[in-house]
Amino acid sequence: MAYSWFKAFHIIGFVVWFAGLFYLVRLFIYHVEANQEPEPARTILKNQYQIMEKRLYNIITTPGMLVTVAMAIGLLSTEPDVLKEGWLHIKLVFVTLLIGYHHYCSRLMKKLAVDECRWNSQQLRALNEAPTVMLMVIVLLAVFKNNLPTDTTVWVIFASIILMAVTIQLYAKKRKRDKEKLTAELAQVAQEQVS
Protein backbone atom coordinates (compact mmCIF):
# COMPACT_ATOMS: atom_id res chain seq x y z
CA MET A 1 0.00 0.00 0.00
CA ALA A 2 2.83 2.44 0.83
CA TYR A 3 4.34 1.82 -2.62
CA SER A 4 1.12 2.95 -4.34
CA TRP A 5 0.93 6.13 -2.26
CA PHE A 6 4.57 6.96 -2.93
CA LYS A 7 4.11 6.27 -6.64
CA ALA A 8 0.93 8.38 -6.90
CA PHE A 9 2.53 11.39 -5.23
CA HIS A 10 5.77 10.87 -7.16
CA ILE A 11 3.77 11.20 -10.40
CA ILE A 12 1.88 14.24 -9.08
CA GLY A 13 5.16 15.80 -7.98
CA PHE A 14 6.90 15.42 -11.32
CA VAL A 15 3.87 16.68 -13.26
CA VAL A 16 3.88 19.83 -11.11
CA TRP A 17 7.67 20.14 -11.34
CA PHE A 18 7.74 19.86 -15.12
CA ALA A 19 4.79 22.21 -15.55
CA GLY A 20 6.73 24.77 -13.52
CA LEU A 21 9.98 24.24 -15.45
CA PHE A 22 8.24 24.53 -18.82
CA TYR A 23 6.47 27.77 -17.89
CA LEU A 24 9.39 29.30 -15.98
CA VAL A 25 11.71 29.50 -18.98
CA ARG A 26 8.79 30.74 -21.10
CA LEU A 27 8.51 33.63 -18.61
CA PHE A 28 12.27 34.21 -19.03
CA ILE A 29 11.70 34.54 -22.78
CA TYR A 30 8.98 37.15 -22.25
CA HIS A 31 11.16 38.90 -19.67
CA VAL A 32 14.03 39.22 -22.16
CA GLU A 33 11.69 40.30 -24.95
CA ALA A 34 10.28 43.05 -22.71
CA ASN A 35 13.59 44.88 -23.29
CA GLN A 36 12.35 45.63 -26.82
CA GLU A 37 9.33 47.53 -25.51
CA PRO A 38 9.32 51.31 -25.03
CA GLU A 39 9.10 52.79 -21.55
CA PRO A 40 7.05 52.63 -19.35
CA ALA A 41 5.85 49.27 -20.73
CA ARG A 42 9.36 47.79 -20.45
CA THR A 43 9.66 48.44 -16.71
CA ILE A 44 6.08 47.39 -15.99
CA LEU A 45 6.46 44.11 -17.91
CA LYS A 46 9.85 43.27 -16.45
CA ASN A 47 8.60 43.89 -12.90
CA GLN A 48 5.53 41.73 -13.52
CA TYR A 49 7.57 38.89 -15.03
CA GLN A 50 9.99 39.02 -12.12
CA ILE A 51 7.11 38.61 -9.65
CA MET A 52 5.62 35.75 -11.70
CA GLU A 53 8.99 34.00 -12.00
CA LYS A 54 9.65 34.13 -8.26
CA ARG A 55 6.19 32.87 -7.37
CA LEU A 56 6.30 30.09 -9.94
CA TYR A 57 9.76 28.97 -8.85
CA ASN A 58 9.13 29.16 -5.09
CA ILE A 59 5.48 28.13 -4.83
CA ILE A 60 5.10 25.54 -7.62
CA THR A 61 8.34 24.39 -9.24
CA THR A 62 10.55 23.86 -6.17
CA PRO A 63 7.82 22.16 -4.10
CA GLY A 64 7.10 19.92 -7.12
CA MET A 65 10.77 18.95 -7.24
CA LEU A 66 10.89 18.29 -3.48
CA VAL A 67 7.76 16.10 -3.57
CA THR A 68 9.16 14.19 -6.56
CA VAL A 69 12.47 13.50 -4.84
CA ALA A 70 10.89 12.68 -1.45
CA MET A 71 8.43 10.23 -3.01
CA ALA A 72 11.22 8.66 -5.08
CA ILE A 73 13.12 8.03 -1.85
CA GLY A 74 9.93 6.51 -0.43
CA LEU A 75 9.58 4.27 -3.49
CA LEU A 76 13.18 3.14 -3.17
CA SER A 77 12.69 2.38 0.52
CA THR A 78 9.86 -0.01 -0.35
CA GLU A 79 11.85 -1.75 -3.12
CA PRO A 80 15.57 -1.34 -2.34
CA ASP A 81 16.58 -4.10 -4.79
CA VAL A 82 15.71 -1.80 -7.70
CA LEU A 83 18.85 0.19 -6.83
CA LYS A 84 20.85 -2.62 -8.47
CA GLU A 85 19.12 -2.07 -11.84
CA GLY A 86 21.08 -0.38 -14.65
CA TRP A 87 18.06 1.51 -16.01
CA LEU A 88 17.58 3.21 -12.65
CA HIS A 89 21.22 4.38 -12.59
CA ILE A 90 20.73 6.03 -15.99
CA LYS A 91 17.42 7.53 -14.87
CA LEU A 92 19.08 8.95 -11.75
CA VAL A 93 21.75 10.58 -13.93
CA PHE A 94 19.02 12.35 -15.90
CA VAL A 95 17.17 13.31 -12.71
CA THR A 96 20.43 14.79 -11.39
CA LEU A 97 20.80 16.77 -14.64
CA LEU A 98 17.22 17.94 -14.24
CA ILE A 99 17.88 19.10 -10.67
CA GLY A 100 20.93 20.98 -12.01
CA TYR A 101 18.71 22.57 -14.69
CA HIS A 102 16.22 23.54 -11.98
CA HIS A 103 18.93 25.33 -9.99
CA TYR A 104 20.37 26.92 -13.14
CA CYS A 105 16.92 28.42 -13.77
CA SER A 106 17.14 30.00 -10.32
CA ARG A 107 20.48 31.51 -11.30
CA LEU A 108 19.03 32.86 -14.57
CA MET A 109 16.08 34.30 -12.67
CA LYS A 110 18.44 36.22 -10.38
CA LYS A 111 20.42 37.51 -13.37
CA LEU A 112 17.23 38.65 -15.09
CA ALA A 113 16.21 40.53 -11.95
CA VAL A 114 19.38 42.67 -12.11
CA ASP A 115 19.55 42.89 -15.94
CA GLU A 116 22.68 40.73 -16.17
CA CYS A 117 21.23 37.86 -18.21
CA ARG A 118 23.13 37.42 -21.49
CA TRP A 119 20.69 34.91 -23.00
CA ASN A 120 18.53 36.13 -25.88
CA SER A 121 15.00 34.90 -26.47
CA GLN A 122 16.11 32.47 -29.20
CA GLN A 123 18.67 30.84 -26.88
CA LEU A 124 16.09 30.64 -24.09
CA ARG A 125 13.65 28.91 -26.45
CA ALA A 126 16.29 26.26 -27.09
CA LEU A 127 17.03 25.99 -23.35
CA ASN A 128 13.31 25.50 -22.76
CA GLU A 129 13.47 22.24 -24.73
CA ALA A 130 16.02 20.62 -22.38
CA PRO A 131 13.46 19.43 -19.82
CA THR A 132 11.37 17.95 -22.65
CA VAL A 133 14.27 15.74 -23.72
CA MET A 134 15.02 14.78 -20.10
CA LEU A 135 11.35 13.99 -19.51
CA MET A 136 11.28 11.71 -22.55
CA VAL A 137 14.34 9.79 -21.40
CA ILE A 138 13.18 9.52 -17.79
CA VAL A 139 9.69 8.31 -18.69
CA LEU A 140 10.97 5.83 -21.29
CA LEU A 141 13.39 4.39 -18.73
CA ALA A 142 10.67 4.17 -16.07
CA VAL A 143 8.27 2.42 -18.45
CA PHE A 144 10.62 0.06 -20.31
CA LYS A 145 13.23 -0.39 -17.55
CA ASN A 146 15.94 -2.80 -18.76
CA ASN A 147 13.89 -3.63 -21.89
CA LEU A 148 14.25 -0.16 -23.39
CA PRO A 149 14.92 -0.55 -27.12
CA THR A 150 17.96 1.72 -27.13
CA ASP A 151 18.45 1.82 -30.89
CA THR A 152 14.89 3.08 -31.45
CA THR A 153 15.00 5.34 -28.40
CA VAL A 154 18.16 7.08 -29.56
CA TRP A 155 16.59 7.77 -32.95
CA VAL A 156 13.33 9.00 -31.42
CA ILE A 157 15.16 11.36 -29.08
CA PHE A 158 17.50 12.55 -31.85
CA ALA A 159 14.52 13.16 -34.17
CA SER A 160 12.70 15.02 -31.40
CA ILE A 161 15.69 17.29 -30.82
CA ILE A 162 15.97 18.01 -34.55
CA LEU A 163 12.24 18.69 -34.75
CA MET A 164 12.45 21.07 -31.78
CA ALA A 165 15.41 22.93 -33.33
CA VAL A 166 13.65 23.27 -36.69
CA THR A 167 10.46 24.44 -34.98
CA ILE A 168 12.35 27.09 -33.03
CA GLN A 169 14.02 28.34 -36.22
CA LEU A 170 10.74 28.42 -38.16
CA TYR A 171 9.02 30.24 -35.32
CA ALA A 172 11.84 32.82 -35.22
CA LYS A 173 11.44 33.43 -38.97
CA LYS A 174 7.67 33.77 -38.59
CA ARG A 175 8.08 36.27 -35.76
CA LYS A 176 10.56 38.27 -37.82
CA ARG A 177 8.18 38.33 -40.82
CA ASP A 178 5.25 39.33 -38.59
CA LYS A 179 7.31 42.12 -37.04
CA GLU A 180 8.40 43.39 -40.47
CA LYS A 181 4.79 43.27 -41.67
CA LEU A 182 3.57 45.19 -38.63
CA THR A 183 6.34 47.79 -39.06
CA ALA A 184 5.38 48.22 -42.73
CA GLU A 185 1.70 48.58 -41.83
CA LEU A 186 2.48 51.17 -39.14
CA ALA A 187 4.68 53.08 -41.57
CA GLN A 188 1.87 53.03 -44.14
CA VAL A 189 -0.67 54.28 -41.59
CA ALA A 190 1.72 57.02 -40.49
CA GLN A 191 2.29 58.02 -44.12
CA GLU A 192 -1.46 58.13 -44.79
CA GLN A 193 -1.97 60.36 -41.76
CA VAL A 194 0.70 62.77 -43.03
CA SER A 195 -0.89 62.91 -46.49
Describe the structure.
- This protein starts with a helix and ends with a helix.
- It is elongated.
- The chain has one domain (2-148).
- The protein has helices at 2-33, 41-78, 86-113, 121-127, 130-144, 150-194.
- By secondary structure, it is mainly α.
- The longest helix is centred in the C-terminal third of the chain and has 45 residues, at 150-194.
- It is built from six helices and no strands.
- The model has no long low-confidence stretch (mean pLDDT 91).
Class inferred from helices and paired strands: mainly alpha
Number of domains: 1
SSE series: HHHHHH
Biggest sheet layout: none
What amount of the residues lies in strands? under 5%
Tally of separate helices: 6
Morphology? elongated
Helix content: over 70%
List how many beta strands DSSP finds. 0
Protein name: Protoporphyrinogen IX oxidase
Function: Catalyzes the oxidation of protoporphyrinogen IX to protoporphyrin IX.
InterPro entries: HemJ-like
Keywords: Cell membrane, Heme, Iron, Membrane, Metal-binding, Oxidoreductase, Transmembrane, Transmembrane helix
What's the helix and strand layout?
Blueprint: H1 2-33, H2 41-78, H3 86-113, H4 121-127, H5 130-144, H6 150-194
Helix pairs in contact: 1-2, 1-3, 1-4, 2-3, 3-5, 5-6
InterPro entries: HemJ-like
Membrane topology: Multi-pass membrane protein
Function: Catalyzes the oxidation of protoporphyrinogen IX to protoporphyrin IX.
